[in-house]
Amino acid sequence: MKTLQKLVLALVAVGILLTAPGLRAADLTPEQAKAIAVEAYVYTYPLVTMDVTRRVMSNVPAGVKAGIGPMGMFHHVRTYPPVEFRDVVRPNFDTLYSVAWLDLTREPMVVSVPDSGGRSPGARHRKSSGGGRTVQKGAKP
User: Fold this and answer.
1) Would you say 76 and 98 are in contact if contact means Cβ atoms under 8 Å apart?
2) Global pTM?
């Protein structure tokens, strides 16, 4: 969320800068224009690629392909991926995955994980559209 806030602030600042009385885009030096472009790219690229990934992975009916399906549901990959698998840049070939795209814009969601009966549930990754990722290994907190 902080990345999105920085992006919004950067865009607002650029908007104010470019619409300020007596100041035009032509008044920017090439270095300033490049710095603005780099910052805009750095902050927006993860958001754009995450949204493209979400649309591709959630625009499929449930059960058509392992690991993808509608938003708000878990989709499981119940077999190890073959060596040719390239849907993810670097998949772990010894890991079974479960994927869920959750829309939290209207309200929070509670995701519960059943008791593993003493077995290690493995690692749980949570990734946000801003590029942040948290990893929790082992038992539930």
Assistant:
1) yes
2) 0.60
